[in-house]
């Protein structure tokens, strides 16, 4: 039964991102922070700071609820290391708790598909935490795409330098087998946005960037991609976490409180169309619409640069994507909306990242498979699925 007044939400994992989600849940009028689940020292510390109960495990939380006759939380936000998402989410789903799972839904699409099917069978809602879809810069980009005419090509960049402590503080980030690597952790955000804005990716080719952190041989530090979308749009993308650069979404949009905002950055994304080019996050549109002569647009005429969003900072920097994502999660739990970033969307991004990794390994372009081709791996769920798995497998 859904709580009638406020939606009770538990946060699973409070490393870097968990406390940020917890603060938004605590702040919202629609939600109540039910508690924190994390077996590390961070668990009781964050719970104490936020004055909410702490549990060492989901099982401990469930036992406590049953022992005290407390209703389970309505929803959970899963903020644990990438390779743990599926098992943890399945355990929560087995108790009917709705899910907002941080990206990537899972590094392994077969596990993600099993989780999706399991959640469907339990009537549990599953939202994937690609929160940037709610970022006003992305909303405005999508709204203004038509201004470039027919989109022919795109260009994008996500480059910065992560501090050593980022890797030293969490071993899972230093090995691809535990979900580490800038491609799986960060590029996946951009892949989700690119597919959200331009449609499904059909093919990728990737060149691995040279390694700087030699102490972590099993993790990538970035890649240069060429991308072909199913609708024929082509693009390039550079992603690196080893270079000193402000050309990344966080610096350009100011959306992450720990990464300084770089005001005035241009061209994180460039969208090239028959009638113009749109640059994001500055929202300069380069076009020839106001040319005096009614001539065919071409290199013979000057190009105008026009910022198409008035009061850009006021409009784009004020709304918090995490608040908007949380409000949406509440609506999803209440049954008022379907997940804006679904399990299939999350899986599709994971499939693209897998294709990128395969391309690096084979040195060849790779076709991105459709989600329908994924065979679910129910053994990864770690919960009793029988007799449902019979039905799910058929
Ligand atoms: N949306 C975003 O912008 C964003 C930003 C950062 C991280 N993330 C994602 O969030 C997730 C967490 O990343 P992070 O950087 O905060 O990781 P982290 O390593 O800093 O924190 C993970 C926490 O999970 C806890 N944990 C591990 N196993 C657990 C379990 N079984 N039950 C409860 N807690 C458990 C750990 O003790 C740790 O405190 C990752 O999937 C990452 O990709 C998303």
From TrEMBL:
GO molecular function, one term: nucleotide binding
Database matches in InterPro entries: Gfo/Idh/MocA-like_OxRdtase_C, Gfo/Idh/MocA-like_OxRdtase_N, Gfo/Idh/MocA_Oxidoreductases, NAD(P)-bd_dom_sf
Gene3D superfamilies: Dihydrodipicolinate Reductase, domain 2 (3.30.360.10), NAD(P)-binding Rossmann-like Domain (3.40.50.720)
Residues covered by the Gfo/Idh/MocA-like oxidoreductase N-terminal domain: 7-130
Entry's transmembrane regions: none
Residue ranges annotated for the Gfo/Idh/MocA-like oxidoreductase C-terminal domain, each copy included: 144-362
Superkingdom classification of source: Eukaryota
Protein name per its UniProtKB record: Oxidoreductase
Species, as recorded: [Candida] railenensis
Organism lineage string: Eukaryota, Fungi, Dikarya, Ascomycota, Saccharomycotina
